[in-house]
């Protein structure tokens, strides 16, 4: 539906990528409501977005709007999913199967977006040889072999702080190309791999900021 | 140490607030390394930040740099912690004590930043009357009374999608002023409360985006 440019995409700010994810979710909701086309203004208003920002973010990837019509909701959603790599299934390694690892394993949102946890790694002898929802729990030393055999491309790291660095290096050594790290503490992000740390307390801090401002106003 | 303005702070973009959290962590690391002062350029370089952005973000809150010196590391860190409301302890309610709730309860990062989970709410009869790490697991109907008695100000919601809306309304009714929601799915964010939904799959999508671009380049 869109005139799409096929040149190599320039450096895209991570915030733009995050917003593409948000737009995709907004379009999904609108589609479920039976809306077929929408203007950038209406899209922005309905989800408290910035319409100029929406247009600027999309412009990195081509020309999606149609004059006098706006965006075709289903078409734009499919385009954004393709851009985000959500038009395929990714095989994900989960390292660490404690409280957080177990919660992430059961998190419905990953599978819904095409992220399939295909192997769990944990060196706890009590867990080895077991399986969770049909997915085997394997020792870390099996990582290189299993990464290849199971075509693992991404990894989620949910190990204690002191294990995060060696685990990350093992993942890179096994050919994993992108790592989402939930372990707290200092890390030397490895080279030649996409590495992203999630710090859940930052989310709470955006809330305490506004509460603190309120108490001071 | 800084000339600080005491007028009411204007509308601060959420991304600025998130970056203040990041700066605070960077300053913490630098302080641990024994560095006393640092320029915005060096700070930016060391943590792959944008030095103009650092100055712009800080400028919302006052004038922190000292000509010819840069920032005093400990002083700036303390200022940012105060701005973020991290100079006090917040009493947090956790609603939902399944896999994710349990993981969030044990997440070390919250307590380190002053967020103390002071009460857990879960209507599962198997959990009621129990406690986790000395924190009682209570039925949701006790929320109004306990919110008052325990001075609960923030809440973390980790319930299934279908319970998220009624739980959120119960929290607002009990006087909670800020909610961090981990439940997936559509929500009508309540009025008169700071409401933030965390979608963990967005974090994975920023990774799959770059992988997808890579396979296409």
List keywords for this structure.
2 domains; seven-stranded mixed sheet; alpha/beta; homodimer; Rossmann fold; two-stranded antiparallel ribbon; Arc Repressor Mutant, subunit A; 217 residues
Uncertain runs of chain A with pLDDT below 50, 5 residues or more?
1-7
Distance between the termini of chain A: 50 Å
Strand order of the largest sheet of chain A: 7-8-6-5-9-10-11
- Beta-strand content bin of chain A: 15-25%
CATH class of the largest domain in chain A: Alpha Beta
Number of domains of chain A: 2
Query: What is the tally of beta strands of chain A?
Result: 11
Give the SSE order of chain A as H and E letters.
EHEHHEEHEHHEEEHEHEEH
Going by CATH, what is the homologous superfamily of the largest domain in chain A? NAD(P)-binding Rossmann-like Domain
User: What average pLDDT do the residues of chain A reach?
Assistant: 90
How is the quaternary structure best described? homodimer
Helix content of chain A: 40-55%
- The CATH architecture of the largest domain in chain A would be 3-Layer(aba) Sandwich
Q: What's this model, at a glance?
A:
Two copies of one chain form a homodimer. Helix content of chain A is 44%, strand content 18%.
Tell me what you see in this structure.
The structure is a homodimer of 217-residue chains. In chain A, helix 1 (14-32) packs antiparallel against helix 4 and helix 2 (40-46) crosses helix 3 (51-59). Chain A has a seven-stranded mixed beta sheet. A two-stranded antiparallel ribbon of chain A has the order 1-3. Chain A is built from nine helices and eleven strands. Chain A has 217 residues and is an alpha/beta fold. Chain A has two domains: 3-83, Winged helix-like DNA-binding domain superfamily/Winged helix DNA-binding domain (Arc Repressor Mutant, subunit A); 90-202, 3-Layer(aba) Sandwich (Rossmann fold). Chains A and B meet through helix 1, helix 5, helix 6, strand 10 and helix 9 of A and helix 1, helix 5, helix 6, strand 10 and helix 9 of B.
